[in-house]
Amino acid sequence: MQPLSNSGEWLRAFKVALIEKNVTGMQQLLDAIPEHYELSEYEEAQYLCNEAVTLLHGLKEETADTLRHLEKNLRFLEATQRTKTSLLDITS
To answer: Which pTM value belongs to this model?
Structure first.
């Protein structure tokens, strides 16, 4: 990611990353957060960061739900799978 020359560019880039749910982009932007803000830009950055936290919590919940669903399907597949017999089983 190219360094951003001012806080306005940073805010625009962070908004885009937030809209796109681009977690990696948000991380990179947070690592390169500008030090100088106008008060209104600071308030906007604070609001965007709060929205990012909300988004990340939501993504975490979605990921946990998906994982639970996959585990449930895996247990079902394992339960319905035909049992394997040993090659030494002479009764079958």
So the answer is: 0.68
